[in-house]
Amino acid sequence: MRHSRFHSRIHFLILGLACLLLLAALLIVKLSDESDPAIPIPNERQITIIDRQGRQQQLPLEQFIIGVVAAEMPASFDEEALKAQAVAARTYILSHCPPYGQPRHDGAIVCCDSAHCQAYSDELQLREQWGENYDKYYAKIAAAVLATQGEILFSQDKIAQTPFCSTCGGRTEDAASCWGSALPYLIAVDCGYCSHSPKFCSYQLYNLDEVAAILSIDSDTLEEMAVISRTPGGRVDTVMAGDNSWSGTELRNLLALNSAAFNWLILGNNIIFTTIGYGHGVGMCQYGADGMAQAGYDYRQILQHYYPGTQIKTEQQDISAE
Question: N or C: which end of the chain has fewer CB within 10 A?
């Protein structure tokens, strides 16, 4: 009897000790979560990038993508839109990694200049940008990136090109019309989901003499300016004024317009340009992706809409990158 009681006491002692250890472990996890909400980032693949200071830096791929998505898309966007952005960003980066392609810089895959490669924000920049929302927004974007880990877009077993723009204004653009090279999945598609963008419609006022000086023509010639043709996406293709002509993209760049989807009105000595959308319009519309997500579409459907005919595959799949 005494032997049985001894074993019972040992049994309860062991159970009690186990409970204490479990409580301690839970407390450690809770404290860890409160001090660092960041989701662990896999680091199977390391990439070399050029940071904003022009220095080479080596980072885990998925960690870099988190910084890219944070820099390229508002963290307030729907999770499915963030996932679509993560796949587009990962596809672009890996398209410049062997075996899919070649680095864009000597010794580095990409740089952090959005005008040349892709924007990227590090922890310090994000803490400054998000302030007290840093923990919440970082966890949200990291979750979107990790939910799509390793996923990239392909077209006919070749890695896809995945350009994107802020706001297409109702219809995206053909790559051929914008850059002169056609791809079957970078074509103009309807988008009725980006009207909530703050840059869906904008107005820019210029003095006639100012525009004439920029275009190197007489101000009187501006009265003759007219759109000769438009692109499949509804943007200005060719503009003529007298014997002078420009592409819509050229005029957009010269006058710093938000997009090549513009019209104008001359009032006295002023000319007012009305612009629809923001950016080149090719590929995924970011505000459109957010609008689609809010309407119930998932990231796969979003990517299929803006890059029609492409397929999502992973690095681990046996696919040709030739």
Answer: N
Closest CA to 52 of 65, 71, 38, 66: 71
Distance CA 266, CA 201 (A): 18
Residues 6+ apart with CB under 8 A from 82: 69, 73, 75, 140, 141, 144, 145
The answer on pLDDT for 25 being more than 90 is no
| Backbone angles phi and psi of 270, in degrees to 5 | -120, 155
Helices (H), 36-60: none
Do 190 and 170 contact (CB within 8 A), yes or no? yes
Question: What is the H or E stretch that residue 231 is in?
Answer: none
Across the chain, mean pLDDT equals: 84
pTM for this predicted structure: 0.82
Query: Which residues of 114-195 form beta strands (DSSP E)?
Result: 151-155, 158-159, 164-165
- Long-range CB contacts (< 8 A, 24+ apart) of 219-224? 222/266, 222/271, 223/266
